[in-house]
Amino acid sequence: MQDKASLQSALRMWEEALGELVRRDGPDLSARQMAIMLIVYLQEPPHTVRGLAAQLKISKPAVVRALDTLGRMDLLKRKPDEQDKRSVNVVRTVKGSVYLSEFSDVVNEAAKRHLA
Amino acid sequence: MQDKASLQSALRMWEEALGELVRRDGPDLSARQMAIMLIVYLQEPPHTVRGLAAQLKISKPAVVRALDTLGRMDLLKRKPDEQDKRSVNVVRTVKGSVYLSEFSDVVNEAAKRHLA
DNA sequence: AGCGATTATTTCGCAAGCGAAACGTCTTTT
DNA sequence: AAAAGACGTTTCGCTTGCGAAATAATCGCT
Predict the structure, then answer these.
(1) For the domain that residue B85 is a member of, what is the CATH number?
(2) Domain that holds residue B100
(3) Hey, are the CB atoms on A23 and B57 less than 8 Å from each other?
(4) Residue B78 CB lies within 7 Å of the nucleic strand D
(5) What would the pLDDT profile of B57-92 be if each residue is shown by its tens digit?
(6) For residue A1, what pLDDT is reported?
(7) Which of A1, A47, B21, B75 could bridge B96 with an S-S bond, Cβ 3.0-4.6 Å?
(8) Confidence class for position A81, pLDDT limits 50, 70, 90
(9) pLDDT value at position B7?
């Protein structure tokens, strides 16, 4: 268990960043969609539907739907696997990189503001 | 603009915490619902529908719906304002406090794990 | 070559959330 | 006291997401 101060600290930081995101115009990603974005952009490729479903413990159709939505937004892309033609690799896009970059700015600003 | 290391740092922390939350059983709150929870539990009362809508720049019906859902989950409660009978105060519950306490544990664990 | 396993997707019925507009209640202004 | 405004809620039509089950394509094993 943490001390009370650090509990509040983490929550306040989350609040500021999240509030900023909700206020923002533009795409409002669900928790699952954001989790998939972060995995795809922060963990080493390759990323597959089954892999994402397993890591997040959600159903494969849920992953497929999230990829549909994120793909429509150009935040990531499907790329057929040439070795195993049943499989699909999920890859990054420029727009997705920009999106996450701005996102991390928001988080960092909140962190900085809170620590100050 | 931050240096690249700290950008990645914030994102990785967010990813670990968010991943844990998505995996978790139990209520899966939307971004808006979570934002409302954090405001109600971290900022000083009183909290009203119009106040929450203004702060998050979302419509009042959206706030009403979120309060319906969160209220059904016992994560917060409506309390009629005695002074101005048009108004409603949003107040905390024990269950909500527990929920956020566990939430901050997850965030803190992710932060600690990442800094290690 | 054939057959079961694996991968991703689609279909189905359903539940939840959205914004805009209308509404009911209460307060403030005139 | 009547009108105007403020607050929260409800209604409307619509969009999105969900899990479970069914489907299509491909792989691997024997």
Answers:
(1) 1.10.10.10
(2) 4-115
(3) yes
(4) yes
(5) 999 999 999 999 999 999 999 999 999 999 999 999
(6) 52
(7) B75
(8) very high
(9) 57
- Chain B residues within an 8 Å CB radius of A22: 31-32, 35, 56-58
Residues of B in contact with A111 (CB under 8 A): 10
CB B96 within 8 A of CB B74: yes
Backbone angles phi, psi at A45, to 5 degrees: -65, 170
Alpha-carbon gap, residue A106 to A21, rounded angstroms: 8
Region B101-108: mean pLDDT is: 86
Number of independent structural domains in chain B: 1
Rounded to an integer, what distance in angstroms lies between the CA atom of residue B97 and that of residue B110? 20
- Contact residues, chain B to chain A, C-beta under 8 Å: 1-2, 6-8, 10-15, 17-19, 21-23, 28-32, 34-35, 38-39, 41-42, 55-58, 100-101, 103-105, 107-108, 111
Rounded to whole angstroms, what are the CA distances from B34 to A1, A35, B82?
Answer: 22, 15, 27
Q: How many residue pairs bridge chain A and chain B with CB atoms within 8 Å of each other?
A: 110
B44/D1 CA-to-C1' distance in Å: 39
